[in-house]
Amino acid sequence: MYSLIVAEAAIFTIFVVAYIFYIGKSATGPQPQDVLSAPIFFTICLLSSSLTIHVALRFLKNGKVNSFALWWLLTIVLGALFLAGTAREWRRLIYQEGLTIQTNLFGTTYYSLVGLHAFHVTVGLLALATVALFTLLRHVRQEHAERVEVLSMYWHFVDAVWVVVFVVVYIVGR
Amino acid sequence: MAVELTNQTGESATDTIEMPASTPWPIVLAFGIALLFAGLVTSETVSLLGAVVSVVGAVGWFRDVLPHEAHETVRVTRQVPAIMTTRHEVARIEIAPELRRAWLPVEIYPISAGIKGGLAGSVAMAVIAMLYGLLSQKSIWYPINLLAAGFFPAVASDTTAEIAAFHLRAFLIAVPIHLITSLLVGLLYGAMLPMLPRRPILLGGFIAPVVWSGLIYSILGIVNPVLNRRIDWLWFVASQVGFGIVAGLVVSRQGRIRTRQQMPLAFRAGLEVSGMLDEHRGEDERR
Amino acid sequence: MSTESIAWSTPQVAAQRPVVERLHDWVTTVDHKRLGILYILYALVFLVIGGVEATVLRIQLIRPHNDFVSPQVFNRMFTMHGTTMIFFAVMPILFGFANYLIPLMIGARDMAFPRLNAFSFWLTAFGGLLLYFSFVGGDGLYGAGNAPDVGWFAYAPLTSKTFSVGHSTDFWTLSLLVSGFGSIGTAINIITTVLCMRCPGMTLGRMPLLAWLNLTMAGLVVLAISPLTAAQLMLLVDRYLGGHFFDTQAGGSAVMWMHFFWVFGHPEVYVLVIPAFAFASEIIPVFSRKAIFGYPVMVAATICIAFIGMSVWAHHMFTVGMSAAGNTFFVLSTMAIAVPTGIKIFNWLATIWGGQIDFKTPMLFCVAFLFQFLIAGLTGIMLGAAPFNWQLGNSYFVIAHFHYVIVGAILFTLFGAFYYWFPKMSGRMYNEALGKLHFWLFVIGFHLTFDFMHIPGILGMPRRIYTYEPGRGWDTWNLIITIGVFFQAAGLLVFIGNLLWSYRRGKVAGSDPWDAWTLEWSTTSPPPTYNFATIPAIKSRRPLWDLKHPEDPDWQYE
What we know:
B: mainly alpha; two-stranded antiparallel sheet; 4 strands; elongated
């Protein structure tokens, strides 16, 4: 899993490098400073989901499956909120600002980078949901904690990537 | 000579072994993903098919490993081949008993020896130079002014009488230059003398200064033509040789210390390895 | 002998079962040995295909103004030759050997993730099929495409929609993407296996060098293939969604693609060559009857190579034009790689030195490897100097240099590895006379082709040209180069014939035909599904030596 995360990190690095390289190189508008606003609320959602998944895992390790389920579901809700936030932002960008992936370099890099991250969040959510399903069907027990931990590692990684993406896109990029 | 590899895991008694069971799902999933991407170059239906196949493959795979990984039991055919060799003799490559790397000094002088040599040499050189000043211009200040002029050509444009007189500024410039240069050369001697083959005093005290003076002789005309005209090369060489011999003598009279050249890498790197220190202590005592 | 009866009985029992059932067994297998063999066979097929493509290229260039194939076909051939050889021939063979050997060498029963292993193999396999499907399916909407023709490094803007209509480039991108996922999966598997599945007593310092080197290789794969995946995704965004990553007219940068590609591309060379080092490090000691010289230094040098290898990519781009600081950095880092590589060469030489050398075919290939790799390294240093590179960049000199690495070093050790482990994999000995014939044919062919390829390069013949004018001094050299190709092709045929013949009729090998020292030789040939009936416990780097010489075991010295 660590290796997979290293590989994923390398992929993200390339995209981030491309984004940074292309900042301010767009031939035509709209420019990031005109259209982007930092999605603070949704960022807090995603980051706090790291916390909740950690708490959930604690409960599972101690054998409290019910509390685990509760916190696990909370994690999913927070993740889904974040995804909805991204969707809303994209909707606004596409329909109000007229920024699509074809418009200019900013559009290309922005949608690929944030989209790649959103894809990882989606994959993570699907995996989380699968575990949740098994939990509700009472198939998850204390001894599965190790496998679930691998998943939570992935989730932490996705969160950490968002911190980088957030800094690059919404702070440096503007 | 059949020797079995010993077992420490304690599972030898059984005659069956659990291995992961064969499963078709990896190939199904791989095919699905390939189709998914192939759809991009053919048509959407292929992608759709790929997605369906992928999901089927993933679900199947999941059911394989959850709740328990599928295993199949393989019967052990208990015939471990005998491990033997036809080559029973072991030869050892002879290594020459002691290959000393003589060209790297085994013992060197401490840094203090270089400093002492440099200082002593500087005195000797100054004495010879002043002797030259007294004999030729009747002034001990003459060589000091010349030395300063070597670095600040403005001084050298003066007349001979003026150069022979005492100048505080020239004195303050010349003394540090002389001391620093002497110290550095002394240190160089300290480092080099152990490496010089046979008769270090002759080589370092006489030949090297002559070579060095020759070098200066050939380039001084370009570097400082005014000074070039005024230097008496015989005395110059004499003072250099004086420095070399005195410095060399002083340095070579100091005690030597052993280098770490012959100690193993791990020891030089400061690694704590058991047994190493004792071994080398023993080696030292043997000397 | 009991061992012989096992080796005999396995194929016979299998032969009695219906073909479909046997096929089903192979398709659904998760056994690392079967997957290893699948990898190797699959890659051999592509090796032959890539070889045929190379032959087409060389026949076209045999004389000036030749028109053996059309320019379009020529472009496709060199693109497919490069892509096939790197991604679908050499890499899978290396993965196959790693798959087969690592668990056996570290005393494990299987890889860490057997199902992932199968999944990775099939991804690679389908990736290759997808690439070759382009010959029939590449026409796309415009009827203009066919197989990819943009060169194996597919520089922008050649890959943009404007210059590459149809789907040929997409086939290239997608197949590399799919097989790239497979490579990453295998690499993760290798890393986990080496780190977690070693048998009792096998510390990292007692691991066979092959395991160490493959661990390094897998680490490089993880770090190198990922940027390629990212770059391919960007290219897909450009081509399918109308993005502008590499579109210079919208402010994008074509040089960006070069950087991304070579960030993958140069470590990839080390991904390929480090397992070749691994084979040499296993074969040379056994045939010199000595332990490997400087084991820890070998490991350190390998890791050094991997590290420095990550920071030299832009020496492929001197002719693109970089800042003076960039040029200096990449020149120096490129030169620095020569140091650990030199250490390795000296260690191999020191291993051979004073040994009782037995010139069996595997050893012959390894000795040739030492010489050829040295020359390849020297021309590499020449090309690593930026001013020299400005003169000879993208000429046949470069082609000669990297074929010296890939054929002269990697393919030669690979052949050595084939002969060395063939008895273990099949239970039969290969034919020594045919093996030597193969060696000499290949050595002659190799040197005819690639030694003389340096010369037209120096005379200014650029790479990838379709044909050339007579009277530039290139004609004779090109003729010689092409003649060499036929020697190599003959050698390859002898090799494959030898494998097929020996598999059916070869002498039964027994478990340890080479009197070797690593764990894979302690089990039967071919090994049973479970590898070791009891998991071995070891005390030194050469566990079998300890057993063979109980009076003088290795662990007293390590």
